[in-house]
Amino acid sequence: MLSDTSIELRTAKPSLLMRTIRWLMAKRKPVFPHTAREFEAHMARRDLPTDAPMPDKFADKFTVERWEAADQMVVTLHPKAGPGAWHMIYFHGGGFILPMFKEHWPLVAAMVERLGLSVTVPLYEVVPESSHELQDDLADEVFAKLAGSHDPSRIILNGDSAGGHMALSLALRLARAGGPQPGKLALFAPWLDLTMADEAIRAVEPHDIMLKIGTLRSCGEMFAGDRDPGSAECSPLYSSKEDLALLPPTRIWTGRHDLFIVDSRTFTGKLRDAGIDAKLYEYEGAPHVFMAITPTKESKDTVKLLGDFLAA
């Protein structure tokens, strides 16, 4: 159950920089259309999107490896001093339908620079042009390859938004399979229920400048394909207590102006009830995937807490 030790409010009000960036974000064209009808019309006519290229300067700052798994591209960044003691697999967000954003690269770089770990980023093919099966195949092959050359207990799975869903889903598949397991799980504003069923989410919706319930439901149906979006397979919020009890220690970070805050709280409670070392960190006024706004106090605090989690 939730307790005073399982959820922590890290900032009682947003920093000035966060407020400024939120205001600017609200003036821009939204990443996702704000209605299901607009979303579906956009998806019907869109050109296949491509990943934001990794900044050229990364080649000077990090040791970069480019490789393939499940016929899809993967990038690994190591500190210049050599591979980190911890190796992170990071799944970027984008509703399963959008590729790597340019904002994801600075977040990945910050984790390598500040924490001294290696980070592998699967550049998965997106739906509906591809399929959830191919996304899962890539995740499975990336973990298997890294676990063959790195102590699995020193591998941490991480991801933001839909990428948090992918990291959690991979952890659940590995737990059920009973083979090598990751040592820890970190989730940045994870998408836990594709159906957005909890009515409490409606109270948050006016404050979320990026996400809207109807659009997310439509996107979730697109990702689910012929599966039930409300099943545990598609929505890990509904995983059984027995499956959740197999997960590694878990930390979650979510802003309070993020639709996913409601399910993050519920999921943290379920993890604790299943006996998992789990904690949720909340940030007042912070938008969806606020940690990607790397200059902010809130993002820096997230990376610090992640380092504390790895050191524990």
Automatic annotation (TrEMBL):
GO terms assigned for molecular function: hydrolase activity
Keywords annotated in UniProt: Hydrolase
Record-linked Pfam families: Abhydrolase_3
Span of domain Alpha/beta hydrolase fold-3: 88-291
Bilayer-crossing regions: none
InterPro entries, per the entry: AB_hydrolase_3 (IPR013094), GDXG_lipolytic_enzyme (IPR050300)
Protein name from the UniProt record: Alpha/beta hydrolase
